[in-house]
Design a protein that fits this description.
The protein is of the alpha/beta class. The N terminus is likely disordered. The termini are close together. It has 6 helices and 12 strands.
Length: 241
């Protein structure tokens, strides 16, 4: 006997916040699940979007801070996420998205004591859903897990994953590709090319390239397990080998 996933047909809304933080591997995975995908660039599209028309909402990372109410679009996104949560629409929230969802649900977002950048392990309480990694991290802020949520993973600096209802928030970046990391590194360097904050950025790029295939597989397993176990949008079937 073998196993296969049957996801049927579902609609996904992907919320991107700027050109520099695209969906990467997430789009490849959704394509493989035959999902109908709509992209919302919330920083340039000022529509009020009704999330109840979708089966999955995915707010991605951002260069902005989830606690910065001066961001023109942040109240709109908070309303969208609150409405999705109230309607039990599954949310897969990544980095900034996980921070903002936690805030919407009553948690607190704030500047972390230090940044987390690079391929870092996490301490996990549910390795089937959130393996220990290493996962790619690139963030300067952190958050508190909202009341009613279950913390699943953490590092010394703060939470790394939580589940609440049919939603999952992760602080790390399962969606990144080598091209995305290369763009982030290029934007992070000083004009003179020196690395900042003691980061060995060329080494980070090499490691990202070396981990590309294993990272893709880890991300696919996380996305599939989330869809099956938490969002309950996918079932596992046994078939004859």
């Amino acid at each position: 006997m073998d196993e296969r996933f049957d996801s049927g047909s579902f609609r996904a809304l992907i919320i991107e916040h700027e050109r520099a933080t695209p969906g990467g591997l997430l789009y490849d995975w959704l394509d493989g699940r035959h999902a109908e995908v709509e992209n919302l660039r919330i920083d340039v599209d000022d529509r009020e979007v009704d999330p109840t028309g979708y089966d999955l909402v995915v707010p991605l990372g951002s260069e902005s801070a989830a606690y910065d109410d001066a961001i023109p679009w942040i109240e709109r996104e908070k309303r969208l996420l609150a409405r999705a949560a109230d309607a039990d629409v599954p949310i897969l929230a990544i980095c900034f998205g996980a921070q903002l969802l936690a805030r919407v649900l009553g948690g607190r977002c704030y500047r972390a004591e230090a940044s987390e950048i690079g391929w870092l392990p996490v301490r996990t309480r549910d390795a089937q859903l959130v393996p220990e990694g290493p996962w790619f991290q690139w963030h300067f802020d952190t958050f508190t897990v909202p009341e009613g949520a279950t913390a699943l993973a953490e590092t010394d600096l703060g939470p790394q994953a939580y589940v609440i209802g049919r939603s999952l928030g992760v602080q790390f970046h399962p969606e990144v590709t080598s091209a995305i990391v290369k763009a982030w590194v290029r934007g992070y360097r000083h004009d003179d090319g020196a690395d900042r904050d003691g980061l060995e950025l060329d080494a980070l790029l090499r490691e990202t390239h070396e981990r590309a295939e294993s990272a893709r597989e880890s991300s696919r397993r996380l996305f599939d397990t989330y869809l099956e176990r938490v969002a309950r949008l996918m079932r596992r079937e046994r078939v004859d080998a």
